[in-house]
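Methods — Computational structure assignment.
A single polypeptide chain was analysed. Its primary sequence is given first, followed by the predicted tertiary structure written as structure tokens.
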Amino acid sequence: MNTGEKNNFEDTDGVITQKGKQNQFRHKLIAFLKNNKAATVLSILLIIAVVWFTIKLRYNERIFNNEKEQLVNQYEFTIDSLQIKHLKFATEVFSWSVRSELLRNNAENLNQLLSVFVKESGADLVQIVNSEDKMVLLSSDKKFEGASYAGLLNFELNDTAILEEEGVVKIITPVMGFNNKIGILIVEIRKD
């Protein structure tokens, strides 16, 4: 370049304009890229790889979170069903004790059995209902005792049944006497 000639990027007063700065930067960048072809290709490949792996990572995180949520739901369902199954078995065994105490008319012992059963089983409410007049004979919550059973219940039930309604699981077990049904044992547990 001639010292007497004006630079293409300078105006008539010798000041570099904004457009001139942009053109100058562009020419330098193009010259750098032409001189360093390998570095340019590697830089482009690096950018593509970073973008690719970022997208793949987000996709894998989304899949992982969906699978994790499904596993947690499946686990909670399994735990709930196992808890209900074990409580059903415990209720059936407990009904044998209730039967023997009802046949002996031993209300004091029944109250103690109810208290221990509620503490050990994790049940929220245990009631013994007379199947003939539908009155609550004994309850772990004393406000129900002596009142008519308020819930819907099939009093002709002959086998243990499990009812689920509004977040409450009821295990209903008939208590059989020698020749007839002498009561119904109802165990309630709330689902979380």
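Note: The CA atoms of residues 129 and 136 lie 4 Å apart.
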